Structures are given as C-alpha cells and as structure tokens.
Amino acid sequence: MSLRSKPAPSWFLWVLFLLIPLQIFAYFNLGVSYKYEVDHAETFVSIDTSRSVASKAAAFQKIAQRAQQIRRQQRHSLVIAAAAAGALVALGLRNDRLRRRT
Fold first, then answer.
1. Rg, C-alpha atoms of the chain
2. Model confidence over 46-95: pLDDT tens digits?
3. CA–CA separation, 80 and 95 (whole Å)
4. Angle between helices 53-101 and 40-47 (to 10 degrees)
5. Overall pTM surpassing 0.85 (yes/no)
6. Residue 30: exposure state from Cβ atoms within 10 A (0-12, 13-18, ≥19)
C-alpha cells in the first residue's frame, strides 16, 4: 500500500482542528497586546512632560517597531489558522474518499 492511498491519521486531523481556535485566540490576544503595548505606551509618552523631544521621538520609534511586530504576528496567526483549516478540510475529504473506495 503506497503512502498516497493511506488515509491521514485521525490524531493529525484533531491536531489541525485544535490548532484553528488556538490561532484565532492568539490573534485576539495580540490585539489586546497591541492595545496595551502600543496605544497606551503612545499616550504615556505623549503626556510625559519630563521627556525631551528627542527622547519622545526615540520612544515613539520603539513603539512603532513593536506595533509592526504585533501586526506581523497577527497576520502569521491568521495564515496558520487558514492553512490548518484548508488542510483539515482537504485531508478530511481525502480520507472520506479513500474510505468509500474500500
């Protein structure tokens, strides 16, 4: 029996099934991180009167880098969730087709 004619193991389908909500949770969790690490940090830096203009500019640059990192991580978590969903559907349909054949 070749590898192409074997159905995917059911544990692997369960792993893919559980990966989808975990990645969606990660997406929303990163949104909360964005709120606290970027939005609040920008507010605190902008209202801080003891900082110089150069210090504020450096702080805003670090905050912008962190915002970019968080957005990139959010995109990655959605791509992983979509890939897991696609693989789950494709392997599920393939398993069903292979089971009907036998």
1. 22
2. 999 899 999 999 999 999 999 999 999 999 999 999 999 999 999 999 99
3. 22
4. 180
5. no
6. buried
